[in-house]
Design brief:
The chain is about 40% helix and about 20% strand. It has a 6-stranded antiparallel β-sheet, sandwiched between helices. Strands 1-2 form a two-stranded antiparallel ribbon. It starts with 11 loop residues before the first helix and ends with a helix. A hairpin with a 2-residue loop joins strand 3 and strand 4. The radius of gyration is 19 Å and the shape is globular. By secondary structure, it is an alpha+beta fold. The longest helix has 22 residues. Helix 1 crosses helix 2, helix 2 crosses helix 3 and helix 6 packs across helix 7. The chain has 8 helices and 8 strands, in the order αααββααβββααβββα.
Length: about 260
Amino acid sequence: MAGNTSRPGVSQAERVVQLLRTFDQQHRRQTLTQVCRRSGIPLATCHRMLREMTRLGLVAQQQNGQFTIGHLVWELGMLSPVQRGLRQVASPFMQDLLAATRQIVNLFVLDTDRALLVERMSGSAVGEPFAVPGDRLPLHTSAAGKVFLAHGALGEDPLSVLALTKETAHSIASSSLLREELGLIGRRGWATTAEEQVDGAWGLAVPVFGLGGEVVAALGIVTVAPLEDPSRVVPALKVTSAAISRAMVGREMREN
């Protein structure tokens, strides 16, 4: 369940957000019953709110009755200064990385306790995407998410507040094992995943730094087979990350 809004004092805006939060990578299409169950909102209220949110473009109802995220959410999300500016700066460098690696190239930002995919580039030979822009991935099962965790995204002890759910049989659900891996990521500067988010997908990611040296994004690639030696691909990722970082810092300094 995504949450429960049955407690007193919950505002209408909070209820709207709670309904929207029920949609994620595993629940892109939901029935009325699913949305109600995952949100914890009573059926009659849920039905009334979804009808109004459909009218406003926040959600869309398909011919089979299922609901999806609406166009307005995507349009507004693309106006976010972080997403819009970062995507514009990063896109040319991501295209170069795509040409160099011939793998899916992803760019993530931290969204509360998830890694939000804001840009994705791929060629025609990599198959169906495992994630698309707008998807929010758990931090502990994605390479980008591990980058954020290793650099203190959720504080000094993020695992004390993070739910280590198993997305696949390969997901790390042990705090001690994940803490050990995060220490390794911090020392070597890059993170990997091996079928931890989706079966048949391997990830590799590095941080993108901002003006103050903070991690503002994570740049990564996804492969459909294990990389024999990830360290051979890391230099290309780090060069691209550094280029994006410099461009972002230059843009920020000009705007200030």
